[in-house]
Design goal:
Layout (H helix, E strand, L loop, with lengths): L1 H20 L9 H26 L15 H21 L2 H4 L5 H13 L1 H28 L6 H14 L5 H18 L2 H21 L6 H5 L1 H26 L6 E3 L5 E4 L2 H5 L1
Antiparallel strand pairs: 1-2
Helix pairs in contact: 1-2, 1-6, 2-6, 3-8, 3-9, 3-11, 5-6, 5-9, 6-7, 6-9, 7-8, 8-9
């Protein structure tokens, strides 16, 4: 747990450092625009600094599966799964209104300002997901999966809880995404698939806040009855995608060792795989 706390503190620290480095924008721009670019600066520099940090400390283990997308079938199922799952997970964020989440509008406004900038949108969709997956799946989840006394399902749940907590305004949906991507990482061993998933969801969320600025979730966009029907459909399609992903991925990749030439060998324990 010490490593997890250290990583989370490092991420927060690097984001604040990036924001501080963006203060000079106030000398050249009007205040509202300067705040937006300072937020983008904090996001971009924080991500780059953190990627350097996490790689230099070797918190992420790389092998032939890390950036493998496995097959076109797996990619297609992953894309469909994340699109339909987004409707289900994002819809539940509407509960934040009933739970009295007061900072939701402020959080969405910052996200919208970043998304409305072409450069900010690129950082949000292309850079941020890489950082998040290196941290939450590559470092945090992998460290939990390596614990012999912790079952994989509990490792995935713990990492998902952490992922949800650090996303204010979207705690429910990102907890669910944390479960989904944790499962995907455990089954495939691929950070590449997790990064792709994160990019898809981030892009959908950005489109939501750009084109529906007064809505907090897809629940508010559709209304109760249409949402209920489409929610049922999204659950069914998600279950079908997960079923075929399980068939395609077969044994959990986290338990598969590798030969020196990179070919898959046999099923082993986490500790043996690490060695």
């Amino acid at each position: 747990m010490d490593r997890i706390v250290k990583l989370l503190l490092a991420q927060i620290g690097f984001v604040f450092l990036g924001i501080l480095l963006g203060i000079p924008f106030f000398f050249f721009m009007e205040e509202s625009l300067a705040i937006t670019y300072m937020a983008i600066s904090g996001l971009l520099l924080g991500c780059l600094f953190f990627i350097w940090y996490i790689l230099s400390k070797k918190y992420v283990h790389f092998d032939s599966l890390t950036w493998s997308f496995r097959s076109m079938k797996v990619i297609l199922l992953t894309v469909i799964l994340n699109i339909v799952f987004f409707y289900f997970a994002s819809g539940l964020d509407g509960l934040g209104n009933f739970l009295g989440y007061k900072d939701l509008d402020k959080h969405l406004n910052i996200l919208r300002d970043i998304s409305l900038s072409p450069f900010g949108l690129c950082v949000l969709i292309l850079v941020s997901p890489v950082t998040e997956e290196l941290l939450h799946r590559g470092a945090i989840l992998s460290s939990l999966l390596e614990k012999k006394d912790l079952a994989p399902k509990y490792a995935i749940i713990i990492s998902a809880l952490i992922f949800g907590v650090i996303h204010p305004g979207h705690n429910i949906s990102f907890f669910l995404f944390g479960l989904l991507w944790g499962y995907l990482y455990y089954r495939s061993g691929s950070l590449g698939l997790c990064v792709l998933s994160n990019m898809i969801v981030t892009a959908l969320l950005a489109l939501l806040v750009i084109y529906y600025p007064d809505k907090h979730s897809v629940y508010e966009m559709t209304g109760v009855m249409p949402f209920a029907g489409l929610l049922s459909l999204s659950v069914i399609v998600s279950a079908v995608c997960i079923y075929f992903l399980n068939r395609s991925l077969k044994a959990p990749a986290w338990q598969i060792s590798e030969k020196t030439d990179g070919e898959i060998d046999s099923i082993v324990t986490n500790e043996e795989s690490k060695e």
